[in-house]
Design brief:
The complex is a heterodimer of chains A (212) and B (204). Chain A has 212 residues and is mainly α. Chain A contains 7 helices and no strands. The termini of chain A are far apart. Classes of the chains: A mainly alpha (212), B alpha/beta (204).
């Protein structure tokens, strides 16, 4: 080698290591591919896409229920809480739809939301949502609080699940804020239930990891 | 690998060539360009594959009715298509979900403006066929499903400005249509909601 380097005009080192340059190129191409692969929306963060769609649908039901009840109740404290909840979750829906648009994927996927397991994620049935309009207001308040505590339990489970799936940083930040926000709202709603002489429903079972 | 095998041949013939250096650099350059070329092609293919958003399916039978008016009006509207795919509509949108009774077109059109796909079916459709349709709408927000009198076909799917008529509920184009247009790029008001309006679906 030293001898060769002293005579640079006749032979270069690479001629004695013919595999070196192709190998380096392959390694470089591999790194480049891996980087770009990660940027593609359907690869890195497939779980992020599913999370954004499912959580948007999950939030949309909470907004719907909060606004249905808000149209009916007189209690200023409860009305403020419902407005806060609805606006926060609607803003988060916008945030998640903004990600989907930026990732260049459709807002809605081909599959049913939450793998068709919405009930396991605390979703209320359409019948329960409808009854929020028809029950006497005091009963509707209790039903809402019971359903929404369960709904938040499901939201927390979904947020915890995405945190275990290597989410993008912005997804992780939202998931963490959903966990913190909804846990504190659950405590508040539990106290409102107790003021009304009622109890929460049985808690949701933890989700099986990777169920969607 | 091929290069290693070639190498001895090049060495043996070196004496016949004018300079050794040009012989050494030429194959290396070719490797470089080959690698770059292949890399670029692979990247292009990947980009095309994955940025299209999952493929469009068969939309060849979809009729397009562009430039629909978006005014809010009171009262009944006479629409050009049956069921309507756009045009003037009521200020209240129809809540998305599954209905077992007909819904007013003036409200449904407003939901189309918000990105809904409206699946309408002949009221005479068999219960089995209806169940197939319900499975297309279940757990898919931004779908409306309702019976509709005097349809031009047993099943008609509508979104803002587009429509597909279908004879059988197991036609794969139903799923293709829903996938392409539910909150799809045709939506005049993306981000608008399909709850908080009027109507109580039996299921969602």
């Amino acid at each position: 080698m030293e001898q060769l380097q002293s005579q640079p005009t006749t032979l270069r080192p690479s001629s004695h290591l013919p595999w070196l340059r192709p190998l380096l190129l392959l390694v470089l191409a591999g790194i480049l591919l891996a980087l770009l692969w990660n940027l593609l929306p359907f690869n890195r963060g497939r779980a992020d896409v599913t999370f954004a769609r499912d959580m948007s649908a999950h939030h949309a039901q909470a907004v719907d229920m909060a606004l249905i009840l808000r149209d009916r109740v007189e209690d200023e404290q409860l009305r403020l809480f419902l407005l806060d909840m609805a606006l926060t979750q609607q803003t988060q829906i916008g945030q998640m739809q903004g990600w989907l648009a930026a990732w260049n994927v459709p807002l809605a996927g081909p599959e049913p939301i939450m793998g068709g397991q919405g009930e396991a994620m605390g979703m209320a049935s359409q019948e329960q949502v409808n009854s929020l309009r028809h029950l006497p207001v005091d009963e509707a308040e209790v039903l809402f609080l019971q359903l929404m505590i369960r709904h938040h339990q499901g939201g927390v489970l979904m947020a915890e699940d995405i945190l275990e799936q290597n989410p993008r940083p912005q997804v992780a930040r939202l998931a963490e804020s959903i966990i913190a926000g909804q846990q504190s709202e659950m405590e508040y709603m539990t106290s409102l239930l107790q003021e009304r002489g009622a109890e929460p429903l049985t808690p949701l079972a933890p989700m099986e990891h990777g169920s969607h | 690998m091929a290069k290693q095998e070639e190498r001895p041949v090049v060495r043996e013939s070196r004496g016949l060539r004018k300079t050794a250096t040009t012989q050494q650099t030429a194959p290396d350059r070719r490797w470089l360009w080959l690698a770059l070329g292949v890399g670029a092609l692979v990247l292009l293919a990947l980009a095309l594959l994955f940025t299209r958003g999952g493929g469009g399916g068969d939309l060849s039978g979809v009729a397009e009715y562009p430039n629909q008016v978006r005014d809010h009006v009171n009262g009944l509207v006479t629409y050009e298509q049956t069921p309507p795919v756009g045009g003037p509509h009521n200020a209240a949108w129809q809540n998305c979900g599954i209905y077992d009774q007909p819904i007013a077109s003036e409200n449904a059109v407003h939901s189309l403006e918000h990105g809904a796909v409206w699946i309408t079916y002949d009221p005479e459709l068999s219960p089995e066929d209806l169940e197939t349709l319900r499975n297309h709408a279940r757990a898919r927000p931004f779908t409306l499903l309702s019976p509709f009198e005097n349809l031009p076909a047993p099943i008609v799917l509508s979104a803002w400005g587009v429509q597909l008529t279908v004879e059988e509920p197991d036609d794969p184009r139903i799923a293709d249509f829903i996938r392409a247009y539910r909150q799809g790029p045709q939506t005049p008001e993306p981000g608008a909601i399909c709850t908080g309006g009027i109507g109580e679906p039996v299921e969602s």
